[in-house]
Specification:
364 residues, alpha/beta, Metallo-beta-lactamase, Chain A, 2 domains, ten-stranded mixed sheet, six-stranded mixed sheet, globular
């Protein structure tokens, strides 16, 4: 992978990062999945190493897939709705590594896009899976399971390992599965994940009075409810999920244009985030940065970079880091460069690079 420079998210995002996410959107919608598959595989692999090795004090949140997130805080690894990655599935060793490092796995409901039985089978005996109380027996089907299953009723509060958990009633629609939305507190950090919630609930007002740090929200079903839900729960940071959820029809794939629109309507606390990227949440002793995000910056998703989001506005007249796009086109043809050099167009599901005059098949 080619590192292009340091362009952290800001409000608004740097032009390079904004353009990159919009070009990724075009690749998804035009079924140009080859370059995206390679990117997601690399990003997730890097994230797994990062999760295992991170020993810092500031809590971190990684975005995985659909409504899947991983949080590391106080030395504890918390997973939320971790399912099979549809575009670039984890191999057995990666699943084992992740599963054995999970301390608590929160499952909003047991639909396939929200649960991976293999991860549960690898979890340690001293770890926990938290799920709706009605679905505890679902995990009897997991072979070689060692972890404890904690079923929670709506309105219940419990201490699970090092976390304090409040389970709120979820709304998956008429006839939908049992669902819970979990408010999780660990070391002073408050996290909320909404599963497939699709309506504004009365309990969200209560959450909005609890100084929520991170809201992991599903904007898939209805835009207006998402805007109102974020405004009601008042998180310091909102991370839209269900980006290009391939378990649903393409018409429901709400990607980065949708996330940027959400930011415009709600405010700068909404952070569009790519698979495998992370955000660091500083402790109360930190006064210089509100969030740090590590991830991609350049077009079409084959380059990784590092950056930060500052509390303060950019100093007037300050120059942005010079983009490195001019370094990407080289005489020697490399398929990934055609994706990132901005001399390409998508035609009929294939990438055509005018710079190199080569058509790159979408599945290459």
């Amino acid at each position: 992978m080619t590192q292009l420079g340091r362009f952290g998210p800001s409000y608004p995002d740097s032009p390079d990062r904004h353009d990159a996410l919009l070009q990724i959107d075009s690749l998804f919608l035009n079924d140009s999945l080859g370059p995206l598959r390679a990117l997601v595989k690399e990003m997730i692999s890097t994230a797994l190493s990062d999760i295992v090795g991170y020993q810092g004090s500031a809590p971190r949140v990684w975005y995985f897939w659909n409504m899947g997130y991983i949080v590391k805080a106080k030395g504890q690894v918390l997973g939320f709705d971790l399912a099979e990655l549809q575009l670039a599935p984890l191999n057995a060793e990666q699943k084992k590594l992740l599963g054995q490092n999970l301390d608590v796995l929160f499952v909003s409901h047991v639909d396939n896009p929200h649960i991976d039985r293999d991860l549960v089978s690898y979890m340690r005996a001293e770890s926990f899976v938290v799920c709706p109380a009605e679905d505890v027996s679902f995990f009897d089907t997991v072979l070689d399971r060692k972890c404890a299953i904690v079923g929670m009723k709506a309105g219940e509060k419990r201490q699970v390992g090092s976390t304090s958990v409040e389970a709120y009633p979820g709304d998956h629609g008429a006839g939908g599965p049992n669902m819970r939305c979990y408010l999780v507190s660990i070391g002073g950090t408050k996290l909320m994940q909404t599963g497939d919630q699709r309506t504004v609930a009365e309990w969200m007002k209560e959450v909005g009075r609890k100084s929520l740090d991170v809201l992991m929200i599903n904007p898939l079903w209805e835009y207006n409810w998402t805007v109102e839900a974020v405004r009601t729960m008042k998180p310091s940071c909102a991370l839209p999920g269900t980006m290009y959820d391939m378990s649903h029809e393409k018409e429901t794939w709400h990607g980065y244009p949708y996330a940027f629109r959400l930011r415009e309507d709600v405010g700068p606390n909404v952070f569009p985030i790519f698979f495998g990227e992370r955000i660091s949440i500083p402790t109360s002793s930190s006064d210089s940065l509100s969030f740090v995000l590590i991830g991609l910056v350049a077009a079409a998703g084959v380059a990784v970079a590092y950056g930060a989001v500052a509390r303060r506005r950019r100093t007037p007249g300050a120059k942005l880091p010079k983009p490195a796009a001019d370094l990407m086109c080289q005489k020697r043809y490399v398929p990934e460069l055609c994706v990132t050099c901005r001399h390409y167009v998508v035609k009929g599901g294939k990438i055509h690079c005018s710079k190199h005059n080569i058509a790159l098949d979408s599945e290459t």
